[in-house]
């Protein structure tokens, strides 16, 4: 990680993303807690996360737009948009204005897709391909490390001051991120616009995604797991409430415990990838979710949940770093936005359906049964992906060490080539 942080362009991008990731980490869980507190409903709280991922149906079009603009200005504009859409949260005051939270969550879901489409391309501009795993690992270290305090901060701000404090912190975080990224200087060629039919251009990312065997397996295996991951957005409210007998805000504590594993997972993801390759890292990430689902189904105990959440925390950065590094390494720059958005759609689309199903099922099926089903399906997905780990041998992810390059323009051109 120290190697990649020596590069000035990445340090500046890293700093900007720190502020936006802080805002994101505070908001995501806190919005669900806000709905739970106003309504007392696990299903309505889980529906907040459904609103966040529902815009994924527009991902191919967002990727198409992202590929028509330079990454840096597009990312700046997206952060400003993220700040603006949080302003209506100041109008939420009772159950009658609950729809505003859902509308804001859906709008933020759009910006989240746009950030991913631009960021994957921008990272490839400022970092050479042999350091992609370390760059993604560094970002995941911060993102998962934020889970140590950001959910508690969000829950604490909401408890002490109400929802307006969440909106304020989010707006400030996204605006600072936009300002910092504005200072980034990196060479970007003008996007090449090909003369193809509009639908062919929009679907180019899907063709790229399925044209790479390793990437195809990793995405399909993750998609299978995501079909049940989404159930957890409602199921864990029930586990916390009925199993642990804790208030809704205690979910912030569990997510912070998960952040301990996430922090360590981000620090070690690049090293794991050097041993088992990108597909193997994705498989390991999937399997590390299983203990938490098993514990939730069998043991309704805080002290059993804590270590299981730590393991779950390890799994998330392994899964994300493996997928993103494989995507960035195998995708041409001109297709990065569309391919990134296609991967988001293939993963988050089933997640949206799963979240919707979870919001319904948690009211009619014992949450322990649902957690048992989740453990079984994710185990199958992890074993399937692990069996194909040789599609991306460890040598494909091994970084070189001679990367200390101070010139920002040289960095961008080297990575683009």
TrEMBL record:
Residues 1-191, 214-417 form the Major facilitator superfamily (MFS) profile domain. It is found in: Cell membrane. The chain crosses the membrane at residues 12-35, 47-66, 73-93, 99-123, 167-187, 217-239, 251-272, 279-296, 302-321, 342-363, 369-387. Residues 395-417 are annotated as: Disordered. InterPro entries: MFS (IPR011701), MFS_dom (IPR020846), MFS_trans_sf (IPR036259). It comes from the Bacteria. It is a multi-pass membrane protein. Keywords: Cell membrane, Membrane, Transmembrane, Transmembrane helix. This is MFS transporter. It comes from Hamadaea flava. The lineage of its organism: Bacteria, Bacillati, Actinomycetota, Actinomycetes, Micromonosporales.
């Amino acid at each position: 990680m120290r190697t990649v942080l020596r590069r000035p362009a990445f340090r500046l991008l890293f700093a900007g993303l720190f502020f936006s990731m802080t805002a994101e980490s505070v908001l995501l869980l806190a919005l669900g807690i806000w709905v739970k507190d106003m309504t007392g409903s696990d299903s309505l709280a889980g529906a907040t996360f459904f609103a966040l991922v529902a815009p994924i149906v527009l991902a191919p079009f967002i990727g198409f737009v992202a590929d028509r603009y330079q990454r840096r200005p597009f990312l700046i504009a997206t952060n400003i948009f993220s700040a603006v859409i949080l302003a209506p949260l100041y109008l939420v005051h009772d159950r009658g204005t609950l729809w505003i939270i859902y509308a804001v969550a859906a709008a933020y879901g759009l910006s989240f897709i746009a950030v991913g489409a631009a960021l994957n391309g921008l990272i490839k501009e400022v970092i050479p391909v042999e350091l992609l795993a370390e760059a993604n690992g560094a970002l995941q270290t911060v993102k998962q490390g934020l889970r140590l305090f950001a959910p508690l901060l969000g829950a604490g701000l909401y408890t002490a001051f109400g929802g307006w404090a969440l909106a304020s912190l989010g707006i400030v975080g996204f605006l600072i991120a936009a300002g910092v990224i504005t200072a980034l200087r990196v060479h970007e060629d003008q996007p090449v616009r090909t003369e193809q039919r509009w639908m062919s251009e929009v679907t180019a990312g899907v063709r790229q995604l399925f044209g790479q065997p390793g990437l195809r397996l990793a995405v399909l295996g993750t998609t299978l797991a995501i079909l049940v991951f989404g159930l957890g957005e409602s199921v864990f409210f029930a586990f916390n409430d009925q199993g642990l007998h804790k208030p809704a805000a205690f979910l912030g504590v569990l997510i912070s415990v998960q952040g301990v594993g996430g922090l360590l997972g981000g620090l070690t993801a690049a090293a794991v990838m050097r041993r088992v390759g990108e597909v193997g890292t994705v498989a390991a990430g999937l399997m590390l979710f299983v203990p938490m689902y098993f514990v939730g189904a069998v043991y309704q105990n805080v002290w059993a949940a804590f270590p299981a959440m730590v393991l779950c925390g390890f799994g998330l950065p392994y899964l994300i770093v493996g997928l993103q590094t494989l995507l960035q390494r195998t995708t041409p720059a001109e297709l990065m936005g569309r391919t990134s958005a296609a991967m988001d759609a293939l993963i988050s689309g089933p997640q949206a359906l799963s979240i919707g199903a979870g919001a319904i099922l948690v009211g009619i099926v014992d949450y322990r049964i649902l957690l048992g089903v989740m453990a079984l399906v994710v185990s199958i997905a992890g074993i399937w992906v692990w069996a194909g780990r040789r599609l991306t041998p460890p040598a494909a992810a091994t970084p070189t060490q001679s990367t200390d390059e101070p010139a920002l323009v040289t960095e961008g051109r080297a990575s683009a080539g």
